[in-house]
Fold this protein.
Amino acid sequence: MSDRRIDPVTGTETTGHSWDGIEELNNPLPRWWLWAFYGTILWGVIYVILFPAWPMVTGATKGVLGWSTRANVAAEIAAVEESQAALRASLTEVDLRLIPENEELHSFAINAGAAVFRTNCSQCHGSGAAGALGYPNLLDDAWLWGGTVEDIAYTVRHGIRNEADPDARYSEMPAFGEILTDEEIATLVAHVQSLPSGQDPLSGPGGELFDLNCTACHGMDAAGMRELGAPNLTDAIWLYGNSDEQLTEVIRYGPFGVMPPWGERLSEAEVAAVSVYVHGLGGGETQVGENDVPEGAGAIDAAPSDPDEVPFPDEAGDTGGEDAAAVIETDEAATQ
Amino acid sequence: MSDESTSLYAAREPIFPRRVSGWYRNLKWWIMLLTLGIYYITPWIRWDRGPSLPDQAVLVDLANRRFYFFWIEIWPHEFYFVAGLLVMAGVGLFLFTAALGRVWCGYTCPQTVWVDLFLLVERKIQGDRNARKRLHDARWTPRKVWLKSSTWAIWLLIAVATGGAWVFYFADAPTLLVDLVTLNAPAVAYITIGILTATTFIFGGFMREQVCIYMCPWPRIQGAMMDDGTLTVAYRDWRGEPRGKGLKRREAAADLRTVGPQIGGRAPAIPMPGVPDTNTGVTGPGDCIDCNACVNVCPMGIDIRDGQQMACITCALCIDACDEVMAKVNLPRGLIDYVALSDAPREAAGGDPIPAWRHAVRPRNLLYLGLWSLVGLGLLFALFIRPEIEMTVAPIRNPTFVTLSDGSVRNAYDVRLLNKQAEPRQFLLSQSMAPGLDLDIEGETGNTVTVPTDTQRLVRVYLTAPAGSDAAASERTDVRLWVEDMASGERAHTDTTFNGRDLQ
């Protein structure tokens, strides 16, 4: 079998191996290739010693270097958190209304707020914040409890009609099914349906019923009352729908929409961030409300005109946060 | 059972190419000068782009995701330019391989160029082929140590410079050079230089032809891309064989000259080698005097007279070597030459050689050239119609519209504005095609947006249709969003749709 000879076609020596007449030419591999092969084996041994390699019952061998992807990720997360610490701190210290003045802080708040929203708010208000029947749409310009960034922050922090937080926004629409007859409810439904098209709330077939039962909360002009979270009945937005059946059910049983107090679960910085985010979704009110904002807001309006005095840390690690706190204290002093 | 003397592994046979001079050698010197010049000098060319942008003519700015090439700046979303250049490089290799065989390998491949440079160093220090060969075989004496180590030291310097030049393409070259010298440069710069220094030193100094034969896939690919119309370095065996040398050969030639007929005006009048002369019946010697000049100059250590082979990088040095010898023995040049395989039967039968340009101009090459030009022109066209203003519009689909308290209907769009210029620009946004729609920008009081220098900005744009308007009541309305540079008046637009209330 071992019969080396010169292959006539190629002029190359054969290895002498022959299988059913098929012979193998002897074209030797370069020797460095063999060294490279030994090198990879050596590297494999070194690698196994240095890095996690052998699977054991409860995990892999650790390796001399102690390298771990999870530790790396944890370290990266910690590094990011540390780099954001100053921003996070100033979110809690700065007046929320001033955040848009600082591009870096605003961008941080919007992005952090979006993440908070997706995790905590989207279950009821929808991932696009468009709400659902019974869950307010946060994109429009109608607000039950107020649409300034501070109103929003209060709502997020304390929630609505929950029993967990004594500061929760609270109101209760009576179940008029126990007070009014079915005919009266039907009359009121038709009356309420006609309000957005300009019907005077106090006249017409349902005017008297409305005056007696509804104006206490929804107002003589039916434009609602934010202190009580009573919706404006003259606009085009209906939280529970405006069909006959939907309105009949609302009047007969009274709605009781609950929102948890997120201040218990979210940090103050997260509350601030998600409030800024929601405020920037298209419906946020910049106007100062009647009685929920300190008159010291004048000082805030003046602040942006002089950028040097805008109380934000220009860079991470700056001590600007203390200045911001000082400004807020001044505001509070002005209110008192 | 197996024969013990059969080795499965072979050590590298050292190769000592002899110095050669000639037309192709000169061409290769110039190409070496050009390619190395481009490689080493390019990062140091300055190009003023204004105060806020880098002033390096060619810069791959990985951190900021920009590629600068003189007056061209490429953003990541324009990566198709790079893809287009790669396509051109691919088709260009098809073209050159179909026309001229492994001309890339022989002239411009970095491996070839750097090996050539290393050989030059080796020759200057250790002498030409025979001296180097003797030195290699000699025992280790102080002189040998000195010669070898000084050669290696210069190779190492070249290798460091090679790796060093590479990193300058990725950062501001003068700054990085200072940082490198003062040991303040990022670790990745030193690691990159280290790796490229090692590969240059080892591949150029010690691996050499092993890289081409065993590591590079290109020789195998090229086998499939050449055909018998491809010009490649080949030995005219029909002219050279039977090879022979010395007195015997001269005598035979002299005899034949007296009786042989003239063929096609080619001198000298020797019958076609290997073919018995019709008059005399004598078989003449070939033109090859078997001097081995072609073997001695070959950097791959092969004998071109064995025919075309994978190890041949067509560096054409054997052509110069053979021409030199042919001139000395008073025979026409071109025993080894750029020849197409299809020429063999024709020339062997006594026909005239076909001029090289007729081999180059043939349908296959023209097709490749056409494809290559098409891609190139397409890229140039794309480059020149690149808009100065770029805007992308992504309508918000969750939800498709929002009803506001006064019954109007609002749509939101994420609008991305790109400012590729060296100063901040103020853009005015507006819409057309749907009269009555109001445009607002989140967080802005007017309809203008300022985009900082060389960056992009994402803004949320609202279009609001008043209650009862057509747009509010119909399911879809076509809208055209306009962006206008407030300073230059330049405009661009993007078409999108406005979703109204679905009235069923």
Summary: The longest strand of chain A covers residues 14-19. Strands of chain A lie at 14-19, 22-25, 29-30.
